[in-house]
Specification:
Blueprint: H1 2-10, H2 17-33, H3 38-45, H4 48-66, H5 73-92, H6 97-141, H7 147-196
Helix pairs in contact: 1-4, 4-5, 4-7, 5-6, 5-7, 6-7
Length: 205
């Protein structure tokens, strides 16, 4: 059993050493309390590498739940690792392979559409602000010729700049909302996979 857990630890990359030790101690105690043999553990959780991937997925799901409001780089890194682990988990099972391929294609198509949509919003906001400043600069060029025309173009410039600054935070908010919806879908798949892998959240045993 110790050899099995040692092999598991080798594959727990991306998790702080203290956390990986606690995870292994947690499951070692669980195996002892349940009187599970090495054969039973292998049959239930698979190879050390597969077990480690499931443990990492569980760890990152827990971390994301605890830091759901954080936008720190470390939390973003954990989320990217979580997405990758869930993709690996889907493609690791022959039974789930057709579902995984279909789901991957759907997610990929949705991501392309959303990225294109967000990109167009960002371009529109930037274009509004830049055109506003350009119009404002141009207005000063005709100030000596016509005061009325200067006022007209200045008004258009401020409207464009104002709209740009109004829509900028709304676009950022939309990006945040869409990303959170994507992560909710990813985590839902992750929870399904952890249940399928017989992995329990710490404190659930």
């Amino acid at each position: 059993m110790n050899n099995y857990l040692n092999e598991v630890q080798k594959h727990l990359t991306g998790i702080p050493q203290k956390e990986s030790i606690e995870l292994l101690e947690y499951y070692e105690e669980y195996f002892l309390d349940a009187n599970l043999t090495l054969e039973q553990v292998s049959a239930k959780y698979g190879t050390p590498k597969k077990f480690a991937q499931a443990l990492k997925m569980t760890y990152f799901l827990e971390q994301d739940a605890e830091n759901s409001t954080s936008v720190q780089p470390q939390n973003t890194k954990h989320r990217l690792q979580l997405v990758w682990l869930i993709v690996l988990g889907l493609f690791a099972s022959p039974l789930l392979l057709p579902v995984a391929l279909s789901l991957f294609l759907v997610l990929f198509a949705c991501c392309i559409v959303l990225i294109a949509l967000l990109f167009s919003y960002y371009i529109a906001v930037i274009a509004l602000i830049l055109s506003g400043f350009f119009t404002l600069i141009s207005a000063f060029g005709i100030l000596a010729q016509s005061l009325v025309t200067f006022i007209f173009f200045t008004g258009i410039a401020f409207v464009a700049i104002g709209l740009g600054f109004i829509f900028a935070p709304l676009t950022l908010k939309l990006t945040h909302v869409l990303f959170n919806l994507f992560m909710k879908l990813i985590k839902w798949i992750g929870y399904k996979l952890t249940r399928k892998s017989n992995i329990k959240m710490r404190g659930a045993i």
